[in-house]
Amino acid sequence: MPKVTYIEADGATHTVEVASGTTGRDAAIDNDIPGIDGDCGGVCACATCHVYVDPGWIDKVGRAAEGEMEAELLQFAEDFRETSRLACQIEITEALDGLVLNIPTGQH
Amino acid sequence: MSVSSVIEDEIYSIPLEEIDVSHPKLFQRDTIGTYFKRLREEDPVHYCANGHSGSYWSVTKFNDIVRVDTDHKTFSSDTSQGGIFLDGPAEQSDATGTREGAPDLGLTTFIAMDPPKHDEQRKVVSPIVAPTNLQALAPIIRERAADILDTLPVGEEFDWVDKVSIELTTMTLATLFDFPWEERRKLTRWSDVVTASPGNGVDSWDQWREELMECGLYFKDLWDQRVGGEKKHDLISMLAGSPATANMPFTEFLGNLLLLIVGGNDTTRNSITGGVLALNQNPAEYDKLMNDTGLIPNMVSEIIRWQTPLSHMRRTALRDAEVGGKTIRKGEKVAMWYLSGNRDSEVIDRADEFIIDRKDARKHVSFGFGIHRCVGNRLAELQLQIIWEEIVKRFKKVEVTGEAERSFSNIIHGFTKMPVILHAQ
Ligand code: HEM
Ligand code: FES
Questions:
Q1: Full-prediction pTM beyond 0.90?
Q2: The pLDDT value given to residue A58
Q3: B368: which DSSP letter?
Q4: d(Cα A96, Cα A84) in Å, to the nearest integer?
């Protein structure tokens, strides 16, 4: 099973093992990782699962496609960055084993 | 929401095609929940051909609401298409005055715009009410909430809506704008004026225009004082101090300010009242709260779901589209009934029960979804959280002592009056 590491804004680190195919949002909610709310249940409608993908991983994970809902929602996120993604749109597979996701200071 | 079984039978015997959930009296009488229950069961995407709000579609289930709310390319919010409320000028006149003939002040608000204009303006306002900025305001809001609660009479009946819900909401707005404290009720007044019409809050359109102009000039003064001043966290200083907004046209500045005032006013006010009522109707939940005040953040989300301060948002189809198996035609009006989506037991466990320690309490549709999702949601939550923390410190119980009077509106789901007696700790 692939591992994902979440790093909170204050540096606290949580590494969890998840079933392949789980989204970054569900993995965080299932493991009670603070800082990811995921209010819409993971259907790309609320932007409260905002994360920064570790720069070393962003090419592998990919960026939000322009013109699609994810990018439209992310433009309003607090402190949007080049590496911003919505965790519910990241599917964690074996290929992403070791993925590092940084959690912003707040979800808006 | 307990409707007697006689009334329930009556509602279930109306021919489906005659059901009209847009009538404000159903909300005022609090029978609306049974209508929505029936639609969710029998016809979740329902067409009403000739109702209070004319012809319109009702979308009543959680997932269908998310579907419409997130498809802004098909479903427009734009004023030019009819905007965000079912009732246009003609229907509103049924209740009170008409908005026909309202002077055009050229004010713009992004809640009733489509991209790209919506996106530009939302980006300007969003950082101001983002969590990090709000943290700076929280201590002042708490202090002022405490002051208001400390002056309330204990052991005698009074109106919770006026003395607490309105006062606390006004206080927060004043804090947000760093508005001159003694004049804070001006904010409440201006917020009411925005949606007023002759005979309904103002005497004439001239008066309406004058009061909003007064509001505009007042804010312009505050703006001028704060441009180039020290960096502060209030909304006006932030707008005046940011390169992106310092040169914003005045009508845009005022339009955005008014949207923040109106958007946060009735909604928060009615969540404060609705929370007290829900706890009184569910004494076991009140006990839970008093035994563990750490539940407050979760309870706040549950209150916002339970109350659903905005009953609906309206969209207009820009092209034919399928929703829940029905075909909505280009040009037709669509109401997303948040009040109904929040009672959809296929998505929300025991949706008809008020449960303050509910798991997944954040999963509700009260703030909408998609690009228009409430930008003030964190402010609303913060405010309610602080208020409840200060209430439970002081009072063993806020007891509701009579009938709550509900608003005559298919938009604002709220209260005009609610008598209470406070019991000190
Ligand atoms: C419990 C309290 C509140 C509720 C239930 C609420 C509800 C809503 C809803 C349903 C929408 C439209 C969502 C959609 O169309 O998908 C909205 C939008 C909005 N709300 Fe709130 N609101 C609340 C508090 C506030 C506060 C405190 C503010 C002020 C800071 C505010 C400002 C706004 C603004 C500016 C928009 C327009 C956003 C856009 O169009 O992009 N709201 N709100
Ligand atoms: S959980 Fe709502 S957008 Fe990801």
A1: yes
A2: 97
A3: -
A4: 17
Domain span at residue B153 reads: 5-424
Tokens for B278?
Answer: 């829900």
Distance CA(A75)–CA(A71), nearest Å, equals: 6
Q: Tens digits of per-residue pLDDT, A46-87?
A: 999 999 999 999 999 999 999 999 999 999 999 999 999 999
**CATH node for A3-102:** 3.10.20.30
Q: Ligand 2 centre from B135 Cα, in Å?
A: 23
Q: For A7-52, what is each residue's pLDDT tens digit?
A: 999 999 999 999 999 999 999 999 999 999 999 999 999 999 999 9
Query: To which H or E segment does residue B298 belong?
Result: helix B296-307
Q: Which ipTM was obtained for this model? A: 0.95
Chain A residues with CB-CB distance to B371 below 8 A:
72-73, 76
Rg (CA), chain B: 21
* Chain B residues within 8 A of A48 when measuring between CB atoms: 362
**Ligand 1 cavity residues, CB under 6 Å:** B 69, 110-111, 122, 129, 259-260, 263-264, 267-268, 271, 304, 309-310, 313, 366-370, 372-376, 379-380
- CA–CA min distance B343, chain A (Å): 15
The strand pair at A50-53 and A84-86 is best described as antiparallel
Number of domains in chain B: 1
Domain of residue B373, CATH code:
1.10.630.10
Q: Which of B113, B118, B344, B373 should we substitute to test contact with A (largest number of A Cβ atoms within 10 Å)?
A: B373
> Is residue B56 exposed (0-12), middle (13-18) or buried (19+ Cβ within 10 Å)?
buried
> B424 alpha carbon to ligand 1 midpoint, in Å?
34
CA distance B331 to B338: 22
Report pLDDT for B99. 61
Ligand 2 pocket, A24 CB below 6 A?
no
- Closest residue of chain A to B67, computed from CA coordinates: A45
Residue of B nearest to A73 (CA): B371
